[in-house]
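Handout, section 3.2

Students often ask what a structure token actually looks like in practice. Rather than define it abstractly, here is a full record for Pentacotripeptide-repeat region of PRORP domain-containing protein. The first block is the sequence as you would receive it.
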Amino acid sequence: MRPYIPKATFAFCHSLLASRLLPSAAAPSSPLLPVQALLTTAGLLPRHPDLSLLALNSLLHALSRRAASPAHPRLALGLLRDMLSPATPLPAPDHLSFPFALSAAAAVDAPDSSSDAGAGAQLHALLVRNALFPVDHYVTTALLQLYAPRPELARRVFDELPRREAIHYDLVIGAYARAGMPAEGLAVFRAMFEDGVAPDAVVLTTAVAACAQAGALDCGAWVHRYVERAAPGLLGDAFVGSALVSMYAKCGCLDEAVRVFDGMPERNEYVWGTMVGAFAVHGMAAEAVACLERMAREDGVRPDGVAVLGALSACAHAGKVDDGLRLLREMRGRYGVAPGHEHYSCTVDMLCRVGRLEDAVGLIGTMPMAPLESVWGSVLAGCRSYGNVELAEVAARELEKLGGTADEGVYVQLSNIYLDANRKDDARRVRKLIGSRGIKKAPAYSAVEVDGEVSSFVADDQAHPRCFEIWEVLRLLVDQMAQKPDEEETLRALL
């Protein structure tokens, strides 16, 4: 058993970390040598290996978070390598050291990182060899977090666990959902009950969000009934309640979303923001804007940027342009929220939806920050709807400057705009550009739930396992719509 560490000694180690160790570790030349020297000077090495390990774990934690510098995670892995080496006097890492190292590996192996990939896999092998996986809870949890961007690897780790806890299910469900595979995540959620593990508030929130993503209303309603029966107190939890409100709204059951919202005993700005978003999904601008006033009146909550954005989105979907512009002008003085890029982007989209393209460009010119891809993407979509070729070319050039033309969708839009304007040569030139650059577009898909099972479809989907049945139903629908209604039958139905 590790000896007791007095509070004063613990505080000393943390002050040493903040004042000396972290700056030393971040030094560009020989960063880890000063760490060893400082621990020796402070009297921790070699007489107090436990205190030295405490200080080093704190340093690993600070470096792994990538807060101060993108280079820090690599330094954390270097420090762990020195701790593992018998050639240094540093204490060997314990089971608390490796979760911090795995967090650093997740940052080093990230797609946007310039470092060599594979640090996480090497650590995984080391943990297996040293029997820390799959028996240590902290290590297994950190491994699942490491593999979260690759759900197939996270699932492999999950399947090897002899004893699974709620947090493990939550991480795998979330990994599937973030990868666009909510149905697979919900299968893990169902398996949780078969394994006899009770879900906590975090797992329920993740599962309900996956139901919303998949459009699985029956599954989401079942989770709601489960909470009402097994843990009714969780209906007052801000995250569980908000997830239910969002799920019902996205699945088309706004009345049920309002019922859940009205039944919550305490509603913070997060809950109110979700309700505003629910009204926005259904294009109910008046109700969404009214929520901004109700927040302060009913619960003493001031709207934040998310809630105001939801109200702006509702105005955009409902075509309430004047209300949206007024909200953008007054949001700072009325609610104390400074307009951000997302608010301007939403307002530009609102103007483009109704054909006020010149006003949208004028608003872009007044933005206090540089417009990003979402702004010019809205302009390009508006140009397609209203046939403005010149402005479409401007938007495409701006998107190219921002790197937004890596998606085939920008060029497809521009090509279609040229075709609509009967500029076939320009459309052909743009199409050739798509092929020469090897640009790809992620296909959009639709999802529908039937008898608790979610099916996804893409345009001209010939790989769907039930495509022949789908085509047959579509043929019947087309035939039925082509038939002329019987006037006598129609009158009889009306009377």
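Discussion prompt for tutorial groups: Residues 148-153+163-266 form one domain. How would you have guessed this from the sequence alone?
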